[in-house]
Amino acid sequence: MADQASDGQEKTEDPTQKRLEKSKEDGQVASSKELFVLTTLLVGFLLYLGLTPFFSSILQEWAALLRFSGEDGLPDEIFRNLGSSFSFIFWKSVIFAMPLFIITVFTQMMMSGSINWSVSALAFKASRIDPLSGLKRMFSMKALVEMLKAIFKVICLIGAAVLVFESQFEKLLTAQSTHLFGGVSRLSEVFLLLIIVFLLVLAIIAMFDVVWQQYQHNQEQKMTLQEVKDESKETEGSPELKAKIRRLQMTAGKRAKERRAAMDKVPTSTAIITNPTHFAVALKYEVGTPGAPEILAMGRGHQAHEIIRIGTESGVTVFRNELLARALFFAGNIGEEIPSPLYTAVASVLAFIYQLDKKEQVEEPDVDLPEDMLFNEDGKPL
Fold first, then answer.
1. For 150-165, what is the mean pLDDT?
2. Between the CA of residue 160 and those of 14, 32, 39, 157, 247, what are the distances in Å?
3. Gene Ontology cellular component (predicted)?
4. Does residue 5 register a pLDDT over 60?
């Protein structure tokens, strides 16, 4: 049966990448004790084999620290040799400790895929000293599996040792009939064989334990369907918000496309109202036709410069009026007639341009706009 979450839902979904990364930050990674035992024992065995030729010199160096001549005073010599003994033990221990430390880190890398230093795992948690939590861990399914695994490992190792001693029984019995070094040599051979057999047994146990630990870790990190949905909302946003953003993007894209297409109509416009360069609105009106002037194109910034450039190259009259250009830009729409509150203002401007095109001497009109048609550069009412 799948694990139950606190809200009663079953944890049936595989953990997401974010969940796995969060578990690593909390120090929750798959780890096999049996694999650590195997690798450290293997490295220790290889160190033993590699350092065997140096054992004689190491023993002689150690024995020299236990000889006292008393020439320089026995107490001084004892203290001097004692300090040398500590140094001797320390550096010889480093020779063994460093490879074991390296293989321990490498073993964890093989399990989790990377080196993970978790500060949060060192933080104090009340559950660690809670008696009830401790009892739950002691009598949990995980604890039962660990106990059965330990019993099985002991049985396997004892059985392997019995088989080794049975196969080498005659060699051990005849060891006492030979000389000292011959007997020690036979005992060393049996010892090496025993270690090799132990390593093989531990390798088999570690292989199954790694698979089990990976499976158990994956089961512990499984998520409910609701947790997956909540995480998706946190990382990517809610579906409603994403749909709204898509609608806004589509609307903005549609408007931008319309404005780019409207640029082709600028040469046919009657006049261009500017502010003087921040905004530009191209108007089309034919005298005698019904309806109000139509907005062919409009833009701000770079697009306004393009409208003015195209209109100037095409001989379209450019009329500068800051407030009118803003009013047309913020209140009007491309392809539609100008807003009705701007009829009078635009009519006076077009009449001025019409007379100007006929080479008549006319004064620039005073353009009056309704109060609700007055905007600043951000489109806010003045």
1. 90
2. 40, 22, 19, 5, 71
3. plasma membrane
4. no
